[in-house]
Amino acid sequence: MTALAHSGGTAAVGGYSRGWPLALRLARRELRGGLKGFRIFLACLTLGVTAIAGVGSVSESMLTGLQRDGRILLGGDMELRLTHVAASAEQLAFLDSRADVSRVAEMRAMARGQGDDARRVLVELRAVDDLYPLFGAAEIDAAEALRGDGLQSLLARRDGNWGAVIDPRLLRRLQVAPGDLVRVGEIDFRITGLLEREPDRTSRAFTLGPTFMVASASLADTGLVQPGSLIQNHYRLRLDPDVTAKTLRADLGETFPEAGWRIRDTTEAAPGIGRFIDRLTLFLTLVGLTALLVGGVGVGNAVRSYLDGKTATIATLKCLGAPGRLIFQVYMAQILALAAVGIVIGLILGAVAPYVAAGLIGDALGWRAELGLYPLPLATAAAFGLLTAITFSLWPLGRARSVAAASLFRDLITPAAAQVTRSTLLGLVVFGGLLAALAIFTAADRRLAVYFVVGAIAALLLFRLAALAIMTLARRLPRPKRPGLRLAVTNLYRPGAPTGSVVMSLGLGLTVLVAIALIEGNLSRQVRQSLPEEAPGFYFIDIQPDQVAAFDALVESFPGVTEVQQMPMLRGRIAAVNGVPPSELDIPSDVQWVFRGDRGLTWMRAPRDIDRITSGAWWPPDYAGAPLVSLHDEVGDALGIGPGDTLAINILGRNVEVTIANLREIDWASLSMNFVMIFSPGLLEQAPQSHIATVKADPETEDSLEIAVTDRFINVSSIRVKEALEQVGDLIGQIAIAVRAIAAVALVAGVLVLAGAVAAGHHRRVYDSVVLKVLGATRRSIAQAFLLEYGLLGLVTAAIASAIGTLAAFLVLTEIMRADFVFLPEAVIVTALLATAITVGFGFVGTWRALGQKAAPLLRNE
Amino acid sequence: MTSSESSPATAGKPASGGAHSPKPIISLEGVELTLPSAAGPVHILRGLDLLVSRGETVSVVGPSGSGKSSMMMIIAGLERASEGTVSVGGTGFAGLDEDSLARFRRDSVGIVFQDFHLVPTMTALENVAIPLEFAGRADAFGRAAECLEAVGLGHRLTHYPGQLSGGEQQRTALARAFGPAPDLLLADEPTGNLDGETGQQIIDLLFDLQAEHGTTLVLITHDPQLASRCARSVKLLDGLIVDDVVNGSGTAKPAAATAL
């Protein structure tokens, strides 16, 4: 026994080795046949891997660049921000002892050129001190005479006028030239330079007006700084060598627990943008994954049709004694080799993507991407590609493995009823599970990724069922009279019909397109279409309490004004919920924005019509007791708090304890004045505050109204809602381009797979058309039958994909984006028709080629 | 292009003066076929003249590569002659486009191949019904079922070709060929892929159907015994007709000479 076993072992080493080495040898021989039939396989895999690797690499390079430039973007090692109030002398002394402190004050103001009818433009007034900027440099195009002067010298007072350095876009909007005077508040500034680049521009996530930079010292002269003015004081710190951001943060919290400042360090230099990039990356990665998923169907199709072509070889190998396991290994080895080729190409293209993206984006975002090779996204993309190739190849491979040699000979026409073995099923579960796990654990938002995985599995199953349903239905239909239509209908369910793969590949690609078309359409619709009826034309801000009566009188009597509403406003932030600071709370992501910064607050005696109470009760109009608050119901529901619970609100640097009286519904889309928190009268009545007003007016009176109001009340700023919304619309438009580009990738994948599915059936189609010609069919009737077949298939698939895509868009909009969903029939119909046209187009090309084949060579006996 | 081909009216006129019938169903005059190949043009048919009368049974014999199948392809309108005129059933082929030829086949010609050439993705019934459907017959499926019953396959209507034996497939092909009751049946080695006994059954069936319908039959075969069941035997060698005999009488009858 031992001797035998031993001699067997030697033989194996000697030259006849079993298992993988033999499989690899056989695989190498098989691959001599070239890559024919694997072009679609390679293209699908390459496309998916490129998309994922590219999106990941670009995102990493942007975020790394963001981190590298963090100090410049933030304007310091650390920044403290106070709203309404300035830091106290005690606080400043504390900061000065630990760092260089640069102060920047920001507020909105109206700028106007000279002359009575000069244009008024809302600007972001930035008053900077001598230390600005602590890091980086402002690029300024100074007027001729002042070239070479520093920023501080440009802003200094000369000949009675303070200097100002402004955003170049303002020149056109104000209709002024460098050297001209521009009035802000009560004084005229001379334009001494144009701001080509603000180093810390990105740290402000969203502004309504272009920058108007002036010296800190000039601010008092403008008369704009009033109690309750919406002014933000930023204190930028260059830390002393022995101070770290972490220790300083802790010290500040201990020394001034109620200061109410918002502290950021370089890791949060541009938190809005960073979060935005994270979200966009996740979204684009999911679309990339969809491309890979669609590509996976193509991989499966390619492997199946390749193995169909190898039936004779497999049967022969089996007849010669090859076990199923060896067959599996031989072809798995080939698939892995080819997958490696596709993945490597995809990785190379993905690695190059940041260079291309950086070239396209430049420093439009305020910082430059850090170019380089990012191994993590590349490794992730490679893993996705490999797992996809394996998962989608397992089924056809399993079939080839478990079919008996004899029945393989007959499988040419009737599909083998071969049962896929348990190990193949197990493999499918394991590799599919790994794929899902990878998708979930590499995602920034796991919950969204889980939705995606569940949705993808559901979509795969749905389209599989849809294909079965189409085939069953076609079989059950009464036989149509017209031979062309009958051929078309019966072609849908014939053995070996491409129905399954066409429905799957076209359906998945189309689902993504429909969903994206609907999401995008809904978002832009909400920005644009909701505007005309409901939105006010203007917001007027910073109205002083003593100006309210005069403001109301002016505006209400102004011809063309249809509605005026004004309310007091302060800003404050939630410092604690039932005594627990937000940093120690587990806050659901969809309401985190409420805790992120200052929120607008107001107070009211009686609720307005739009204030719908969902729980609790409003206070009596003459209430004068301990402060109560009416809270936005979504925030209350998300945190599980309601009437009776308490909040601590930091207002003007002091914490105020308030009790929740009721929860209230808010319809943000109405663009009315809405506040997360509305206080009872009493406490806030006494605090320094300004008023905000919304005005609806005829469009043609808007200009004269704006001039009248800002002339009379120099400290009041106007925000044109249309302009603000246009800015938001532009932003959404730019995002939409990125989304469309990546959606195109998913579509290309779908088209590739479709082409593959059509091509796979080509030889059969040629044969069919030749036999039909012999039997007297004209080219026209054959073409009609085939086109009808593809038309039917395309139309039915488009209908199903529209339904699934609509469902996906509905879920994304309502569950993830918390937006309203409106079905947009035109977006869906256009997408669906496009898909049908593509399918018919491919069917037509295939049929045309089939019809061009000469009959005689195929019919000869030899 | 010869001058006669460019004038379909003349070519379409039935050739007159046939010795044994006033109306030949097949008329080949000086037919040549040259096909391109990697090694230069190959002359497959080098001037065939043949007249076949209605109702005649003609066997075509000759070694492999002598041009038997090519001649049949030309008669079926599946291959175009490089030279010469072809007329079948009174229709001249010159000037007919691919679709007109297809319609002509649909109405007048049935073909049986050695390899059966059934559409693999259609059931036996559907295969038999195709030409009837293309002819626009309302009873296509009823007629197809009758034909299949006539060849003894009434119980196999819904089977796909892959589920049928070779003999059953060829019987289906026969049912398909006879379904539209064509004037002319072309058979290219119909038993070549079948065993002796099955082949014999197919041949018996073929001649029964031929007799029943009075169909003209052109049968290509290697089998001398089978050839002798036809009334007339034509022998091809190297693209030329070298012998044309009426079986039983033993008299040589050079077809072309008689016809003209």
Which features would summarize this protein structure in a list?
heterodimer, A: 862 residues, alpha+beta, six-stranded mixed barrel, six-stranded mixed β-barrel, 29 helices, 21 strands, elongated, disordered N terminus, B: 260 residues, alpha/beta, six-stranded mixed beta sheet, four-stranded antiparallel beta sheet, 10 strands, 33% helix, 25% strand, globular, disordered C terminus
Question: What do you see in this structure?
Answer:
With 862 residues, chain A is of the alpha+beta class. Chain A contains 29 helices and 21 strands. In chain A, the strands form 2 sheets. Chain A has a 6-stranded mixed beta barrel with strand order 2-3-9-6-8-7. A 6-stranded mixed barrel of chain A has the order 13-14-19-16-18-17. In chain A, a hairpin with a 7-residue loop joins strand 2 (99-112) and strand 3 (120-128). The model of chain A is unreliable at 1-17 and 408-417 (pLDDT under 50). With 260 residues, chain B is an alpha/beta fold. Chain B has 9 helices and 10 strands. Chain B has helices at 8-12, 68-75, 98-108, 124-134, 140-150, 166-178, 196-213, 224-227, 255-259; strands at 24-35, 42-53, 57-61, 83-88, 91-92, 109-112, 184-188, 216-220, 232-237, 240-246. In chain B, the strands form 2 sheets. Chain B has a 6-stranded mixed sheet with strand order 6-7-8-3-9-10. In chain B, a hairpin with a 6-residue loop joins strand 1 and strand 2 (42-53). In chain B, helix 4 packs across helix 5, helix 5 packs across helix 6 and helix 6 (166-178) packs parallel to helix 7. The longest helix of chain B is centred in the C-terminal third of the chain and has 18 residues, at 196-213.
